[in-house]
Design goal:
Helix 4 links the parallel strand 2 and strand 3. By secondary structure, the chain is of the alpha/beta class. It is built from eleven helices and nine strands. NADP nicotinamide-adenine-dinucleotide phosphate (NAP) binds next to helix 3 and helix 8.
């Protein structure tokens, strides 16, 4: 099978560190990466091993995971465990939750496994949509719930959630996919709010179109997209990790000016203070609202 790295983008080892260099890097604990058998997840595995993490790689495709693990162990001397699991299968998902709950060596969770769709609602199979929600939303939520209490108890840990630019651009692609990624963004913002004071970092990554098999699986091969809007998976992950290093809560690899996101987020926060009121807004012309009647 052609490896994703040669099919899409640069070879994963290009410009990387040699075995000698990485083996001397102090370990940073273990990173558990879901969807590590291809695309963005496989690049995370490569980059995190080179940064000194031991790895637990999760996906369904056993052979791909094994080949990646062999290469990374060889290149980096890090320990790489693989768990073949279908995160849409309750028993498999529970196994990964148990790993997260019981392995105190895990310091980083990368919630990356996900699928997309490009079809409009009227052309989409609701069963496929439900499957997508269970993976993109359900599994990600359960794995977050499994990891976070241990991170809090140990006073540290990082959760990286791979959302998508469609989280804030739901008119692009399939609406259920956009909705699932909006959930990932909202959950990440809320978790960051709740857990930052407890030593836990949460980052949401919002990639734009990235050259992976995602597009083939979603029914629109990436070659159909204008090349100027498609990023190599290596660049997406390197930018996401740079964003993490810079302390970003939300990283949008393609967005040229971070101030644009900051303004968007600030507008949302300002509006948040006005979103709950005893009295309906005047434009709805509700005469004698209940609240004014009850206080007069
Ligand atoms: P990809 O190459 O298709 O990778 C998806 C990964 O998820 C694979 O490792 C796949 O492995 C795994 N996976 C799929 N279903 C699974 C299941 N039921 N149980 C366990 N693992 C499963 O696509 P990608 O682009 O790297 O996608 C990674 C993440 O990036 C997704 O969350 C996607 O929504 C997000 N994203 C992608 C793009 C893009 O343009 N590519 C843009 C924005 C966001 P197995 O098949 O071996 O299980």
């Amino acid at each position: 099978m052609a490896s994703l790295d040669s099919q899409y983008g640069r070879p994963m080892v290009a410009g990387g560190l040699g075995r000698q260099d990485v083996s001397t890097i102090e370990t940073k604990g273990t990173a558990l990466i879901t969807g590590a058998s291809s695309g963005i997840g496989a690049i995370y595995a490569d980059r995190l091993a080179k940064r000194g993490y031991d790895l637990i790689l999760v996906a369904r495709n056993k052979n791909r995971l094994a080949a990646l693990a062999r290469r990374l162990e060889n290149d980096t001397s890090r320990s790489v465990e693989t768990i073949s699991a279908d995160l849409n299968n309750k028993t498999d998902l529970a196994r990964i939750e148990t790993t997260l709950r019981t392995n105190p060596g895990i310091t980083l969770l990368v919630n990356n496994a996900g699928v997309g769709a490009t079809t409009p609602l009227l052309d989409s199979d609701v069963e496929k949509m439900d499957e997508m929600i269970r993976l993109n939303v359900g599994a990600l939520t359960r794995l977050t719930y499994a990891a976070a209490p241990g991170f809090v108890a140990r006073g540290g840990g990082t959760i990286v959630n791979i959302a998508s630019s469609v989280a804030i651009s739901p008119e692009t692609l399939n609406g259920v996919y956009g909705g699932s990624k909006a959930f990932v963004l909202a959950l990440s913002l809320s978790l960051n709010h709740e857990l930052a004071g407890k030593g836990v970092r949460v980052q949401a990554v919002l990639p734009g179109a990235t050259a992976t098999e995602f597009w083939d699986i979603a029914g629109l091969p990436v070659r159909n997209l204008p090349t100027e809007i498609v990023m190599a998976a290596e660049d997406t992950v390197d930018a996401a990790l740079a964003g993490l290093d810079q302390g970003e809560t939300v990283t949008i690899p393609s967005l040229p000016d971070k101030a644009e996101w900051d303004r968007f987020d600030a507008a949302r926060r300002t509006m948040s203070a006005k979103l709950s009121s005893a009295v309906p807004a005047r434009r709805y012309n509700i005469e004698n609202p209940q609240f004014s009647r009850s206080v007069t």
